[in-house]
């Protein structure tokens, strides 16, 4: 059996209970909606972009502990970053949560985001961890359509 | 005679304990059920002894394949007390059966300004086909409300009937809550109001004795895989006179009588609605499943599940953080619940680590979830091979989930 404490690390539990930046963003100039139709996870993400830098970011919505904690951790990690830096983090988080469970995850430089590494061993939960990131990607690219974890672009 | 679940479980290869002795606690039977040896053997034997295409071969093997397929049809008809075996149309399952009614009867009979009635308790498969039909025809869709304890609101049902709907659709048993709907009563009211009645029997046929001539609806749909049979086979059971008058659903081989260059005439009912090579192995496997259930005894199956659900509700409500949804009485073997504010998917992940399989989600009933004011629930659903030990395992795993997420129980 895989150890559940790898998935539900204290950081995850804590962020899911008290999510950071769980609020609307005043003067937001980028936003996107994300949904995981199979689970019912929903996220509404708002960003204020200033000269290609994420000056403020906040999210609202409902979902499981993994999706909520992932969104909370994401907002903390990308605040103050350029869009290119945020996209780079997205790629690295995606690689971490979809990587092989029997190989140690590359978490160098990911800081608290490394807490999501345990998701690798739970394929049914990968979408929960990546929903917020897909939604951020859509917001930064000004895509108007709602993001779905069931969309063919995944 | 009470049912011996531990003995029956030995008939199901997938439910044999793991090499380390850990049992698999399978509590997602409303989604699909496991298969006994007799069903797997019937499919194997069909391919080893009788496989050929049906209704068209001149040789003995094809005659035997056709006999097996038509014998399965008569078996299904007897199981639900259908009007006639010709009123049994084999489909992929409940979803295709309801889509058949919407596409054939619905397109031919529902017009602009007409009303179609559904309930807030319906599975998406008995809702979305009617949404599409009403959108196409410019008809109104009226959704009957549910009561706070998860029953169809009968007063609202009568208000909806006052609009003189062309068609009324409802479930016999709610897949999300387990509520047993008084189908015969609702069908009588709806038919008195002049409506054609469609009943989703996906969750009732596996669990309750079903007598269609007593329910007296017009169309009844169910799936084989939810009642120990294989996936990909189910049936639409209908009043033969309605089927006779309906246009075809899909077109191709088997469903025709004569074909000219520019038109065709149709085969007899039910073949008119079974275009193409049918799922013969599925029908044969389903018939074996029905034999198995009859041997166990259908009143015993219903009593066993009712008792198990009652036991589960009693044990679950001992836990402070658990909320159980749905009615206390008139409930089949389905128990939907939540654990404090822990998301059902997190609960299901923890339970899975204890080899307890439950469903977490909206159960394809989003309008109902909205009315319960929840995004999702955890659902445990029982069948013949479950027993009190499975409920103990569920409760034990829930305690672990509660501890992990810091919920007092």
Q: What's the gist of this structure?
A:
The complex is a heterodimer of chains A (154) and B (409). Chain A is 37% helix and 19% strand. Chain A contains five helices and four strands.
In words, what does this structure look like?
The complex is a heterodimer of chains A (154) and B (409). With 154 residues, chain A is an alpha+beta fold. Chain A contains 5 helices and 4 strands. Chain A has helices spanning 4-7, 10-17, 65-78, 83-98, 126-140, and strands at 30-36, 41-50, 53-62, 147-148. In chain A, helix 4 runs antiparallel to helix 5 (126-140). The longest helix of chain A has 16 residues, at 83-98. The radius of gyration of chain A is 14 Å and the shape is globular. The two termini of chain A are 29 Å apart. The mean pLDDT of chain A is 89. Chain B contains 14 helices and 15 strands. A 7-stranded mixed sheet of chain B has the order 2-8-7-6-5-3-4, sandwiched between helices. Chain B has a 4-stranded antiparallel sheet with strand order 11-12-15-14, with helices on one face. Chain B has a two-stranded parallel ribbon with strand order 1-13. In chain B, a hairpin with an 8-residue loop joins strand 11 (322-325) and strand 12 (334-339). Chain B starts with a helix and ends in a 5-residue tail after the last helix. Chain B is α/β, with parallel strands linked by helices. In chain B, helix 2 (37-49) runs antiparallel to helix 10 (280-296) and helix 11 runs parallel beside helix 14 (388-404). The mean pLDDT of chain B is 96. Chain A binds chain B through residues 1-2, 4, 7-8, 13, 38-40, 42, 62-66, 122, 124-125, 128, and chain B through 342-346, 349-350, 353, 360-362, 369, 375-376, 404-406.
């Amino acid at each position: 059996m895989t150890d559940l404490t790898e998935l539900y690390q204290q950081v995850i539990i804590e962020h899911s209970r008290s999510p950071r930046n769980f609020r609307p963003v005043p003067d937001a100039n980028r936003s996107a909606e994300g949904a995981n139709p199979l689970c019912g996870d929903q996220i509404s993400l708002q960003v204020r972009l200033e000269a290609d830098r994420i000056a403020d970011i906040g999210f609202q919505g409902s979902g499981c502990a993994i999706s909520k904690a992932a969104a909370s951790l994401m907002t903390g990690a990308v605040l103050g970053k350029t869009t290119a830096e945020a996209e780079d983090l997205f790629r690295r988080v995606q690689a971490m949560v979809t990587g092989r469970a029997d190989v140690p995850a590359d978490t160098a430089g990911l800081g608290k985001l490394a807490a999501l590494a345990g998701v690798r061993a739970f394929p049914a939960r990968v979408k929960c961890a990546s929903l917020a990131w897909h939604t951020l990607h859509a917001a930064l690219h000004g895509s108007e359509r709602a993001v779905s974890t069931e969309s063919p672009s995944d | 005679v009470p049912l011996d679940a531990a003995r029956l479980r030995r008939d199901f290869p997938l439910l044999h304990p793991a090499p380390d002795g850990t049992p698999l606690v399978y509590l997602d039977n409303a989604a699909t059920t496991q298969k006994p040896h007799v069903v797997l053997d019937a499919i194997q034997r069909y391919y080893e002894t009788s496989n050929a295409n049906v209704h068209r071969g001149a040789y003995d093997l094809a005659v035997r394949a056709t006999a097996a397929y038509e014998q399965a049809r008569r078996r299904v008809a007897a199981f639900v007390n259908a009007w006639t075996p010709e009123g049994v149309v084999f489909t992929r399952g409940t979803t295709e059966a309801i889509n058949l009614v919407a596409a054939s009867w619905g397109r031919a009979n529902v017009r602009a300004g007409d009303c179609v009635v559904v309930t807030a308790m319906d599975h998406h498969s008995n809702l979305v086909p009617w949404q599409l039909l009403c959108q196409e025809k410019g008809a109104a869709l009226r959704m009957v409300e549910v009561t706070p304890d998860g029953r169809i609101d009968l007063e609202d049902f009568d208000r909806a009937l006052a609009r003189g709907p062309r068609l009324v659709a409802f479930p016999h048993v709610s897949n999300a809550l387990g509520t047993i709907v008084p189908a015969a009563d609702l069908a009588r009211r709806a038919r008195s109001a002049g409506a054609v009645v469609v009943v989703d029997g996906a969750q009732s046929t596996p669990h309750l004795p079903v007598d269609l001539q007593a329910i007296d609806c017009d169309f009844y749909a169910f799936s084989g895989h939810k009642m120990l049979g294989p996936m990909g086979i189910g049936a639409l059971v209908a009043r033969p006179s309605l089927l006779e008058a309906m246009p075809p659903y899909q077109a191709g081989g088997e469903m025709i009588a004569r074909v000219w260059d520019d038109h065709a005439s149709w085969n007899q009912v039910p073949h008119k609605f079974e275009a193409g090579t049918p799922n013969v192995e599925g029908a044969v496997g389903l018939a074996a499943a029905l034999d198995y259930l009859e041997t166990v005894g259908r009143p015993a199956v219903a009593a066993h599940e009712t008792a198990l659900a009652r036991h589960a509700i009693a044990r679950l409500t001992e836990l402070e953080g658990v909320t159980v949804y749905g009615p206390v009485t008139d409930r089949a073997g389905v128990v939907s619940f939540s654990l404090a504010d822990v998301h059902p998917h997190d609960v299901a992940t923890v339970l899975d680590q204890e080899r307890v399989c439950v469903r977490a989600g909206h159960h394809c009933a989003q309008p109902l979830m909205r009315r319960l004011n929840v995004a999702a629930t955890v659902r445990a659903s029982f069948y013949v091979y479950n027993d009190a030990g499975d409920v103990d395992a569920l409760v034990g795993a829930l305690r672990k989930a509660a501890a992990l997420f810091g919920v007092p129980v």
